[in-house]
Amino acid sequence: MAEVAWAALSDPARRAVLDLLRQRPHAVGELVQALQLTQPTTSKHLRVLREAGLVRVHGDAQRRIYTIDPTSFAALDAWLAPYRVLWNDSLDALGHHLDRTGTRTRTTRRT
Question: What is the pTM of this model?
Answer without folding.
Answer: 0.73
